[in-house]
Amino acid sequence: MAKAEASKSFLLRLDRATMEMVEAWAAQEFRSVNGQIQWIIADALRRHGRTKGRRIAKSDPEEGE
Prior knowledge:
This protein is mostly helical. Helix content is 43%, strand content 0%. The protein contains 2 helices and no strands. It has helices at 16-28, 33-47. Helix 1 crosses helix 2. The two termini are 26 Å apart. Residues 60-65 have low confidence and may be disordered.
């Protein structure tokens, strides 16, 4: 069995309107809010070329990128 990838926890404060938008977006894509935030961050890192030489774990294994 493969070892689970270590993850770090941290507190994130969002204003109510932003949180509601993230919750709605997550529901539309059948993800948890946590999974959606992980996907948003990973996507931003990829789009801005910050992942060169680093592996970014996908929060959605069925996503076809």
